[in-house]
Amino acid sequence: MVDAVRADRAVLSEAGQWSRGPPVGVERMLRIYFLQQWFNLSDPAVEEALYDASAMRRFVFIDLGGEPMPDETTVCRFRHLLRKRSCTKSKSRLEV
Q1: What are the CA-CA distances from residue 17 to residues 5, 38, 40, 60 (Å)?
Q2: Cys-Cys link to 74, which of 10, 65, 70, 84 (CB 3.0-4.6 A)?
């Protein structure tokens, strides 16, 4: 899936539209998306979970002391970009 998203030049060219702050890698955003699907988390809930759960931060490779956390708006924009580019089957299933 990561390779498919990376290969899609339109996703990469639209990257500035889903990240308001410093650039966030596609792989990291996909990991956040997976957490949302696995644990049924909304955009605000996944942001909160990343602050609260060190296991989730380790899975996503986020170090709170060294880099900013993607906010809920960034997560929402990335999810909408995936759907727009037809990278998702439905709301809850990802094509593999």
Answers
A1: 15, 25, 25, 21
A2: 70
